[in-house]
Structure formats: C-alpha cells, structure tokens
Amino acid sequence: MAEAVAEAFERRRHLLVQAGTGTGKSLAYLVPALLHRDRVVVATATLALQHQLVERDLPALVEATTEVLPEPPSFAVLKGRSNYACLHRVREGVPDDQGTLVDLPEGSIGAEVVALREWVEGEAEAQGTGERDHAPRHTDRVWRQVSVSHRECLGAARCPYGTECFAERAKERAARSQVVVTNHSLLAIDAVEGIPMIPEYDAVVVDEAHELVARVTQAATDELSAGEVDRVARRGVRHAEGTQGEDLADAGDALRAAVDAAPAGRLDRVPDDLADALVLVRDAARALVSALPKESDDAGLTQVRGWAQEVFATAERMAAGSDADVLWVAQRDERRGGNHLCVAPLSVWAQMRDHLLTDKTAVLTSATLKLGGDFDVVASSLGLKHAEREDGSAEVERTESVLPWAGLDVGSPFDYRSQGILYLARRMPPPSRDGLGQAQLDEIVDLVDALEGRTLGLFSSRRAAEAAAEHVRERLPHLTTLAQGDAQLPELARQFVGDPHTCLFGTLSLWQGLDVPGDTCQLVIIDRIPFPRPDDPLMSARQRAADAAGGNGFMQVAATHAALLLAQGSGRLIRSVTDRGVVAVLDPRLATARYGSFLRSSLPPMWTTEDPEVVRKALRRLAAG
Predict the structure, then answer these.
(1) Rounded CA gap, 360 and 13, in Å?
(2) What sequence ranges are listed for the domain Helicase ATP-binding (predicted)?
(3) Residue 363: in which H helix or E strand, if any?
(4) In a 3-state reduction of DSSP, which class is residue 94?
(5) What per-residue confidence (pLDDT) applies to 157?
(6) What CATH number does domain 416-623 carry, 3.20.20.80, 3.30.390.50, 3.30.930.10, 3.40.50.300?
(7) Looking at the domain that runs over 2-74+177-216+348-411, which CATH code has it been given?
(8) pLDDT tens digits for 13-26?
(9) What is the DSSP letter of 324?
C-alpha cells in the first residue's frame, strides 16, 4: 500500500485502497506523505483516528526518521475556527451576552462558563492550542460562550488579540508543516465550497473515506428557522440606524407562518406563501447587512453581520429552487422554536470532481470501499468514472477532463472464514414496520443465552434497541443488558468491556464508532437490513433522480447505503487476529431477496450458515472458553 500511495502521488493518479483493521494503513500513507515533495493533507472522519495520528503515529514516525532524513518532517493539526477558543470572546465578551451567564449561581451553566474561561486563559499563558477537544468537559451551549464561527471573527488584523489567537496560530503551524491533519468537514469547506481554510497543498489522503460523501453533504447542508431569523433581527435593531431590523423580524413572522403551514418532509413544489416568505427573508437580511457599519472593532456588530450574511445566503439558496438542491421541512425542534427548513445538495460527486479531484491527487482509504465486491460504486459517488479506471494493462493519461484512478485491496490479516460465522436467519418472518416481532425477540434471547452475554446489538431504531434490551432483561436477568441512552457512549463502552456477561444494544453510532477487540464482543446481532427510511427526504430524492436518469435508484442509493452500514456493522466483530464470533442478521431478505447477493458480497468473507442450531452450538463453545 505504501508503494502504491507513493506512486499515486508521483503520477498524480487517484487511488482507492481498501485496507482492513490491523493492516497498518495509517503508516502506509503517512510515510509517503512525509516523503512527498509538497504538502499533503490527511482528512479523517472521527476524532479517535485524528488523535491516533497526531498523538501516536506521526510522533513515532518523526522520531524514527531523524537519522535517515536530512531534516525532521513536520506535521500539524488544523480544525474549523469554532473548534478553537476565542480570546476576544473570553476577555471582552459580546455585549448582548455579557453579565447574565457569569452571575448565575454555582453549579449552573454560568459556573461552567467561568471554569472554561479560566482554562482558556491557562492555555494562552502556556501557549497551548486552545482546542475544544482538550478542554474540560462541557456542553455545546457552554462552548459557544468562548468561541466564534469564521463569520463572527473580527479578523487577525483588527482583533487586539490577533497575535495570540489560537486559530491563527494553528493556521501558521499548518503553513509550516509537511503534513496537515484535518477532518472531512473542513476539507469539504475548503475544497468543495471554495472557502480557503487550509494552506495550499498538492495531495490529500482521505481516511475513513466511506464517510466522505455523507460529510461533504453535511457540510453543504443549510438550515433556516424563524427563531434564528428573529434572533438576528433583535440584534440588528440595536446596530442598524433604520428599520432594517424590524423588517427582518416581520419577514421572520411570515416565514414561521409559511413553514408551519407547509407539510413536513420533502417539498417537490414549494408552496407560494413559503416561496414569498423566503424572498422576504432574503431581501430583508440583505438590507440589514447593507445597513450595518462596514468597519468596526465591535465584536457584537461583527457577530450580527455574520449571522445576517448567513441568513441571507441560506434564504437566497432556498428561494432559488435549484434542481441541484433538495428542500424539506424538518419536524418541530424546541431548540429552534418550531419546524424549520433544510436544504442539501442532491448529489456531491460533481462538486468533488470539479473542486477537489481535478486540482489535487487523492488517496481514499477505508476498511469498507468495495461494495458488491467492486470499487466502482464508491468511486462513482466520489466523482470518478468507470472508464477512467486503470486495470493494469494500460495507463490512462490525466487531462483536465480525464482523471485516472486505480483500486487496490490490500486484504486483511484476519482469516474471516475460520474466525467468524455469518448467520443468515432465513426462517425468520420478514421485518415489520411495527418494530421487532416476537420471533426476533425470542431469537435474540436464544443467541445471547447461548453465549452468556458478550453481545453487541445493532438496531435500525432506538425503539427496537430498547425493546430488545427490555426483553433480554426480563428473560435473562442474570446478565447485564445496556441500551444506548442509559449513559453516555464512552461510559457504556467501558461497562461493556469491563464485564463479559454484558450486552450492549444501540443504533447508528454503535454501528461505526465502537472498537472492542477481544472476547468482550463475540456476537453481533443486526435486526434488519439498514435501508434508509422511505421518508428520508434526501435519500428518497436521490433514489428518484437515479431512476429518472435511467438507473436503478434502489440499488444505487438504498442498497448501497445498506451495504455500507452492514459492512461497517459486521466489522465490529473481528478486530484482531485472535477474535472469534458470530454476526447474526435477523432479516431473511439478506438470504432470499435478489439484492441479497450484492449485500452479502460487501461483507467480510465469513463462513455462512442458515442453521440456528449450528450457531447456538458455536456460541456455547465460545462461552465455555
């Protein structure tokens, strides 16, 4: 893999690498990245991997290369501005917020803010990074009291604390470094949205690349609520000399009425009153931005201008009604004060191709890149075409319109056929819209009982996870059964690892975010094929668009989504060369449906059976040690 990555950098050819857990893939791309003649960006999806890279892998590599390289290679971490504390916000505050929070009694959010501000001052004195991930425990609401977005920032030139700024120092370190470690979202904002966030670079390595499309989509998704418009209007009244703040408030009232009257879900046609309200908000926000003083060191004014610009840009995008976007009404959210609007790109492959892959060389790697046994599905979602793939017989020349790429599966150190069993519950009744049936609940109890715990249950909904947990608690009271929501995920994971006679049942975050090698987890239960919800506005729009283009929307969108999650979920079982266990899928469609073979070929190549008694005997042997 290291040789293939180095060749990709040299030839400016894109590379997709499937590399399973335990292959050492981070070292295989970090070594070529440190040796490359120009700067390389490494983007991850999770904080856990980011920490692994900057706290373990990169320091070890730098130390190991001191005697063989003419000068030690350098690396830095770069995140979005809101991930760093803002010294101006901490020391001078924003007039609208100052006073009320600090005066709250001990034990309240006010005390947490004071403690966080003290930590920020300590970081400044010690010339620390001021990163949120290193801060004392806090909530999102508390962190907003010590940070700003890029729109709210005064700018280093106008800020009295610009020379001390944590975010500016992080950018300076990145500009001096050979390797810059960041996240998918910042990469998307920099490359796809065209907002310069990362110093100039030549190549990018995207780890956990199976997440990239979702993260780029998320970064390009905007939301708008009447409550948000009201907040900006109230602040605008204090800073604009005319009636622009009141006009925006009136537009917000029109938006609230129109959104409340609109049906929840995807809007194929925007109702006239909603379209009119969006135009009112757009025009009023633009007028407010124009009315605000242009040059000022007032942090409150800068914040209002940033918020108003954001409201204007979002309302303008929603009012445009582009076929490239999907607009929908999201259900009532108390934090936002009611229903709100969301807009997301119908697809992101064209943006990624035009703004990232055309200019840079990309290495995309993950344990899950071959869906249906091939790279083409993931490659096309990223903006790479089948006709551009190099098959080894001939090279494809790179031009402005042709982007050559190759796929490489470096395999796995695990012997899946001897380490794992895939149980296809063909005899189960098909899943019901009403949740888990009695047959599924009884099967879960039988499997868990045979293993005496050590079970990770991955469910399609919180309701199903809670129902299964309650049933197992009633039938197997001698075991400890935890459900997502009983405590924070790190605490649940700690309890799960600490006691082998424990089960942990949960939803999506457990499908992808839990790493428990060893005999802690020897049974993974998946209740049903994780197709997207039929009423998911974005997925349903993408599926319909694929059908309209002459493709198979179900296979291209729904089945691909399910294959990716199934691969990730079943990957929770075998995490080391000594792990043993069973993945049990209680959805008979994996064995009986026509699309079942596509889904199965996306899973690790475990030995497969449809006989529940064979599985129970195997679990009893594991329980006996």
Answers:
(1) 9
(2) 1-267
(3) strand 361-366
(4) coil
(5) 84
(6) 3.40.50.300
(7) 3.40.50.300
(8) 999 999 988 889 99
(9) T
pLDDT at position 209:
95
Burial 269-298 (b: 16+ CB within 10 A, else e): ebeeebbbbbbbbbbbbbbbbebbeeeeee
User: Residue 220: how many CB atoms within 10 A of its CB?
Assistant: 18
Distance (Å, whole) CA 260 – CA 263 = 8
Helices and strands counted in the chain (H then E): 27, 18
User: Which tokens is 350 given?
Assistant: 């064209």
Element at 351 (helix H, strand E): helix 349-352
Asked if 206 and 364 count as a contact pair (C-beta separation under 8 A), the reply is yes
Secondary structure element (H or E) that encloses residue 86, with its range: none
465/446 Cα distance (integer angstroms): 16
Condensed to tens digits (0 to 9), the pLDDT of residues 445-480 reads 999 999 999 999 999 999 999 999 999 999 999 999
Non-local CB neighbours of 113 within 8 Å, separated by 6+ positions:
101, 102, 142, 145, 146
Q: 224, 254 in Cβ contact below 8 A?
A: no
List every span in the chain annotated with CATH 3.40.50.300: 2-74+177-216+348-411, 416-623
- What six digits make up the tokens of 443? 């099967």
Q: Which residue has the tokens 């793939």?
A: 389
Q: Measure the CA–CA gap between 249 and 259, rounded to whole angstroms.
A: 15
Cα separation, 226 vs 300, whole angstroms: 21
As a whole number of angstroms, the distance between CA 395 and CA 389 comes to: 9
Q: Is 381 helix (H, G, I), strand (E, B) or coil?
A: helix
Structure tokens of 565?
């999650």
For every residue of 469-505, DSSP letters joined together read HHHHHHH-TTSEEEETTSS-HHHHHHHHHH-TTEEEE
Least confident stretch, 184-188, 344-348, 487-491, 518-522: 487-491
| CA dist list (Å): 129 to 40, 126, 164, 173, 240 | 21, 9, 10, 11, 36
- CA of 177: how far to CAs of 52, 201, 357, 359, in Å? 18, 10, 22, 20
CB of 422 closer than 8 Å to CB of 585: yes
What length is written for the chain? Answer: 625
